[in-house]
Amino acid sequence: MDFLESIEYRDPLFGIMIFIFLIGLVSLFAYYWNYLIGKRQQDSLSRFIESFDYIGFDKEAQEFLALSPNPTPSLLFMAKMYQKSANYEKAIRLYVALLDSIQNPVDKVPILESLGLVYEKAGFPLRAKEIYLEILHYFPRNPLVLKSLIRTYEKLSLFKDALSALGCLEELQGDMGLYRRYLKTKILISSQKKSEETSHKLLIILREEPLLARLVLGFLKDFYPALFWESLMRIPKETLLDLQDILWNLKSEAIPQSLIKELQSIPTNPQNRILKDIFEAKGILPLSFSQKETFELETICLLRTHKSFQGDLGFNYQCKSCKATTPLTFEHCPHCEELLTLKTFVFLKEKQDETRYSFL
């Protein structure tokens, strides 16, 4: 008792003892807290994985899991092979079997990512969205999953949600101005309310980002034709040439008579010259002897002169990033998923008399 009374709170030894005690207490609390968080993650992921029970487990995979000491790499390889060959049902069963066999929640994340991608490829974006949100609930700083979630939101036409997710991705990877303007454009275009304010905002975005010309002008062509023709005169010549497919497939009734009369005189700007060349090749304007902007348009006009064969233009679309080619336009490359990398390729073909029926 006399010893305890002799220790004052100013004694250095007493302070060190208190400090060590506090460190131990904090360490114990942190350990217990991490244990609770890990247990919660494990239970949540287990409950989430139970929702895949309706799929069933692959029997061969279960046998392999029971016999092999390290089955995960082999089963992952097999699942990816099935995924590449578009056998999505088999790939899903293998991924679910792997998820059931792995105990560590952190090790389950890459498999859940692959499972979400398979569901996305198989045409089940809602299921993919659930998987990505479950991963981000516990591992929010995952840029790959955020990108996949944004892509899934786009497929579901949830562009506002995609824009919110993009804000999180920008916190990790910096400014993504092109993607942000693209999503804002999609929000405006998909809005049920069409007004002059909508078209005004779209024109502002188009001035800021010429890569959105195809998307914006395609919308204006359908809903605001006067603004469409007016905007064509403002975009760069290279962009206008990249939109030849839109202009070539226009019906003559959609072209203003005032523009046709204006083009019959000598064009004063590059945009008018391109439009005149296209309309001459289509037979809307009489042929002139001026040099055309492209080889294909020049050839079509020469075929019109001789009339032995009728020429037509065909179009393919190439990704500037991965160089993959497709007969359909795209905003995201279907091969590498890059945004707004489309380049139009024009080729000549013989015109066929076809009767076309609308499926709408």
From TrEMBL:
Transmembrane segments annotated in the record for this chain: 12-33
Annotated keywords: Membrane, Transmembrane, Transmembrane helix
UniProt xrefs under InterPro entries: TPR-like_helical_dom_sf
Membrane as UniProt keyword: yes
Entry-linked Gene3D superfamilies: Tetratricopeptide repeat domain
Name the record gives this protein: Tetratricopeptide repeat protein
Protein species of origin: Helicobacter ganmani
